[in-house]
Amino acid sequence: MADANQKSELKLPRRTPIDSIYERIRKKILDSELAPGSQILEQELAVMLGVSRTPVREAVIRLQNEGLLEIVPRHGVRIVPIAVSDMREIYDVLISLEPRAAELLAARGASPKELRKLEASCERMADTLARGEMEKWALADEEFHLDIVQLSNNRRLVDIVLNCWDQVHRARYFTLRLRQHPRPSKSIEEHYEIIEAIRRGDASAARRLYRRHRERGLREQIDVMTAFRIHQI
After folding, report:
1. Strand ranges (DSSP E) for 77-153?
2. Which end is more exposed in the chain, N or C (fewer Cβ atoms within 10 Å of the end residue's Cβ)?
3. CA distance 56 to 138
4. CATH code where residue 22 lies
5. What's the rounded Cα separation, in Å, for the pair 58 and 56?
6. Is there a contact between 213 and 154 (Cβ–Cβ < 8 Å)?
7. 126: nearest Cα among 193, 188, 195
8. Strand partners, 70
9. What is the largest distance, in Å, between two alpha-carbon atoms of the chain?
10. Of 115, 110, 80, which is closest to residue 203 (Cα–Cα)?
């Protein structure tokens, strides 16, 4: 047993100080604390985080590789904005693949534990909505969607969706700060409808309901950006 435990421990990734700095900068970008299109010196980032410049440099290189920022020689880094056209392309991918994930989950038959996990996300959405905590509501909403994708058990589908996910999170948080979600209770209601279709094993309904839900989400995101005359975020 000791050997098995040692092998298990060896598989755990070692978290370095650079990982922590990378995650902190990444979160500031995704939550729009670092505004899209803005520029900031690496030294300013270091002061903001209370660390030295060297690990910040390594972290921003990783973030540049992910397309979240670009290094501008002698001018620090620029936070890469997302255009409305980019959002449409990202949602095209999600509207194609996420409903398929719901369909796969319904077809194979979700376990009571898996269904409970999805319901728990909806309950957190309702609780945070009642308290007026819209950012926490949005996190619970994202958790529901990510859980369905993960539970599809299709690794390639999961990888493609997660590739788009950061940009969706960033856009959601940006628009949420401009205007409250128009129908948060409707989202919870639609989630429960999707869960019920999955519970029944009705793959066709799960796919249809999920697609309609995502299409509405895209329209609402674009409506906010149009209303505020925002061409990129």
Report:
1. 77-79
2. N
3. 29
4. 1.10.10.10
5. 5
6. no
7. 188
8. 78
9. 62
10. 110
Task: Convert the pLDDT of each residue in 66-101 to its tens digit.
Answer: 888 999 998 899 999 888 888 888 889 999 999 999
CA dist 144 and 120 (Å) reads 9
Contact indicator for 49, 190 with CB cutoff of 8 Å: no
Q: What is the rounded CA–CA span in Å between residue 155 and residue 193?
A: 25
Separation CA 118–CA 147 (nearest Å):
7
Nearest to 138 by CA among 109, 116, 170: 170
- Mind listing the pLDDT tens digit for each residue in 107-135? 999 999 999 999 999 999 999 999 999 88
First to last CA, the chain: 52
- In angstroms, the Cα distances linking 10 to 5, 17, 109 are 9, 19, 34
At 39, which helix (H) or strand (E)? strand 39-40
CATH code, domain with 129: 1.20.120.530
Helix 84-108 × helix 134-151 angle, to 10°: 50
Residue 15, C-beta contacts closer than 8 angstroms, at least 6 positions apart? none
